[in-house]
Write a structure and sequence with these properties.
Elements lengths: L4 E6 L2 E6 L15 E2 L8 E9 L8 H4 L5 H7 L6 E5 L6 E8 L17 E15 L3 E20 L3 E6 L3 E4 L8 E4 L4 E11 L6
Antiparallel strand pairs: 1-2, 2-3, 4-12, 5-9, 6-12, 7-8, 8-9, 8-10, 10-11
Length: 205
């Protein structure tokens, strides 16, 4: 059985090292399951960039994105312009860093002057009041129905990196109290990613 855990010196370095099943932690040249040096010794092995479109600003779009991560959405909507997928060409699930921007955050050479970590916001805000209809009837009158979606997120598995826009803009009530008023539309997302030689640690960086 292979030795998988080493605390101390490995080659010329010191730390805590754990190899993958079947690999000897002392001699393997494969990626380790855990390497305490990783935070200080990340090596980029691939990178890329791209863009994905916003969703339509329509009633119900925000609600349809609740509980949807990038991989799930791609699996169900792999031809949609609001989602993307690239192969990272590794035999394991690597650590990936992603940043994203809007068009006005880019300079003339499409370099980001401002970028954001993965984040998203989805909200449906409702408000109504009970009003009297005639002598005996009552009904609920809508006062508020704001639907907002924005942001971007990604997922990584052992084969691919998945990207998803949550940009839906903002939808609200019009003068007839129906959700047909567009306050603003979602925006195109421009993203860049770097793939590192270490395994994913379950934290997005």
């Amino acid at each position: 059985m292979a030795n998988r855990v080493l605390v101390g010196k490995r080659g010329s370095d010191f730390g805590l090292f754990v190899s993958k099943s079947g690999d000897d932690v002392v001699t393997t040249s494969n990626a380790l399951a855990f390497d305490s040096r990783a935070a200080f010794d990340l090596k980029p092995i691939a990178y890329g960039q791209g863009s994905i479109n916003a969703h339509q600003t329509v009633d119900g779009k925000v609600a349809s994105l609740y509980g949807q991560d990038a991989k799930t959405y791609y699996t169900n909507n792999n031809t949609a312009a609001q989602v993307g997928r690239v192969s990272h060409n590794q035999s394991f699930t690597p650590l990936v860093a992603v940043r994203w921007s809007y068009a006005d955050d880019l300079d003339g050479s499409n370099r980001a002057q401002i970028s954001f970590p993965p984040m998203k916001h989805l909200s449906n805000a409702f408000g109504s009041r009970i009003v009297q209809q005639g002598n005996f009837g009552f009904s609920a009158q809508k006062l508020l129905n704001n639907q907002i979606g924005l942001g971007f997120d990604f997922e990584v598995d052992s084969n691919y990196i998945y990207f998803l826009s949550y940009e839906c803009g903002m939808r609200a009530l019009d003068s007839t109290r129906t959700v047909t008023r567009t306050i603003y539309t979602g925006r195109t997302i421009y993203y860049a990613y770097v793939v590192f030689d270490q395994e994913d640690i379950g934290v997005k960086i």
